[in-house]
Write a structure and sequence with these properties.
It is a single chain. With 153 residues, the protein is mainly alpha-helical. Helix content is 73%, strand content 0%. It is built from eight helices and no strands. Helix 1 runs parallel beside helix 7 and helix 4 packs parallel to helix 8. The radius of gyration is 20 Å and the shape is elongated. The termini are far apart.
Length: 153
């Protein structure tokens, strides 16, 4: 029986954020020890020092947690790119790439996923394809707007 976990649109309270952080830390730790298909909710909850029911308040199962953690990573990586303007990106992407690679190096979940048979390259490739497309559209629309300005030709 697959129950849909409802999450309110409002910001999580401090306790909820702390619990999710505990679960994420425990998840990362377990991923360093074994493949995801061998991680149980019980051992994750024990490692995080939370009740199994608390886990299910936030996630449907281990794979839902992985998906949500990946989405959080994608959001964080997207925020890295959002700090750069189209003009800065036209001058070169090295600073962006350095920041992205620093993020990946510092992010333990991504590293542990890779060590345990997950495919970090696939994860990053998915993000890079999405972000590259998004940035190209942004730069293109910016160039189109500039070419329509009086005196720009």
């Amino acid at each position: 029986m697959s129950a849909e976990v409802e999450r309110p649109a409002r910001m999580e309270d401090r306790r909820g954020r702390r619990t999710r952080a505990q679960l994420r830390t425990a998840f990362t730790s377990l991923m360093a020890e074994k493949p995801i298909n061998q991680i149980t909710v019980r051992e994750l909850a024990d490692r995080a020092d939370v009740n199994r029911g608390t886990f299910y308040t936030h996630y449907r199962d281990i794979y839902d947690m992985l998906e949500q953690v990946e989405q959080e990573l994608l959001d964080e990586l997207t925020a890295v790119l959002d700090r750069y303007s189209a003009q800065e990106l036209r001058r070169g992407i090295r600073p962006v790439l350095e920041e992205v690679f620093c993020f990946v190096r510092e992010n333990a979940v991504a590293q542990e996923q890779d060590r345990n048979g997950g495919n970090i390259a696939e994860f990053l490739n998915r993000w890079l394809k999405f972000e590259t497309y998004r940035q190209i559209r942004c730069i293109s629309s910016h160039e189109d707007a500039e070419s329509e300005l009086p005196g720009s030709k």
